[in-house]
Design brief:
- The chain is an alpha/beta fold.
- It folds into three domains: 4-40 and 82-165, Rossmann fold (3-Layer(aba) Sandwich), CATH 3.40.50.300; 43-79, no CATH class; 172-223, no CATH class.
- Helices cover 26% and strands 21% of the residues.
- A six-stranded parallel sheet has the order 2-5-1-6-7-8, sandwiched between helices.
- A hairpin with a 2-residue loop joins strand 9 (172-174) and strand 10.
- Helix 1 (15-28) packs across helix 4.
- The radius of gyration is 22 Å and the shape is globular.
- 16% of the residues are buried.
């Protein structure tokens, strides 16, 4: 299950700015990140007159805009979805989800607090408050980071949600040389190989899998 951390705070507290700092630091460490933005006022991602807008105006329940680089999904909904629902329906192939807003959800939260704009915190430890990002120190039993300390916050996220759930060891060697693997690639290899092997007779619960692929009988072997 993909872990979720919500970045919460009042309007104009700097939630988006903090996410802009956390995502590159997580990427630098090899993690794939998804983000979710909560908008209680509604929004439009399409432009009037565009073909996809015309599809929706014609009555399409779901519209997908696809290109070689990215895609967008626009669909009607009948309720304000919970974060876990959004994760389970729409998000895959990532290591962690950062959400902006969703302060009433039950997921772990980092609250952004600026002393010149706020009088008191929105969340307490009972609200699953993981940490505070602030230009003012707090002593309420959770870590308090400087607003610029993205590295420290990612250290905490990594310790709580990523390293604590590390995958079994996966080693890839090509022509005898070990190739470093990101968490996403490790997870993909593990899931694919384990799934295929588990489907074989008498291999339902594999504990150790060794796979060798010989690209050409006349070349050195590649090991995975």
């Amino acid at each position: 299950m993909i872990p979720i951390v919500s970045i919460v705070g009042t309007s104009d507290s700097g939630k988006t700015t903090l996410i802009e700092k956390l995502v590159p630091e997580l990427n630098r460490r090899g993690y794939r990140v998804a983000t979710v933005k909560h908008d209680v006022h509604g929004f439009d991602v399409d432009r009037e007159g565009k073909d996809s807008w015309r599809h929706k105006q014609a009555g399409a329940h779901t519209v997908i805009i696809s290109s070689p680089q990215k895609l967008a999904l626009i669909r009607d909904v009948d309720h304000d979805a919970e974060l876990t629902e959004l994760r389970d329906k729409y998000i895959q192939d990532v290591d962690i989800i950062l959400s902006e807003g969703f302060k009433r959800n039950s997921q772990p939260k980092i609250e952004v607090f600026r002393k010149e704009r706020h009088r008191e915190l929105l969340c307490t430890r009972e609200d699953n408050l993981l940490a505070i990002a602030s230009n003012q120190p707090f002593q309420i039993g959770v870590p308090c980071f400087d607003l610029e300390d993205a590295r420290g916050m990612v250290d905490l996220i990594e310790e709580k949600f990523l390293k604590a759930k590390e995958l079994p060891s996966v080693q890839l060697k090509v022509n005898g040389r070990e190739v470093p693997l990101s968490p996403f690639v490790r997870k993909s290899i593990l899931g694919t190989v384990r799934g295929m092997v588990s489907a074989l007779k008498e291999c339902e619960t594999p504990q150790r899998i060794e796979l060798q692929i010989f690209a050409d009988p006349d070349t050195k072997e590649s090991e995975a």
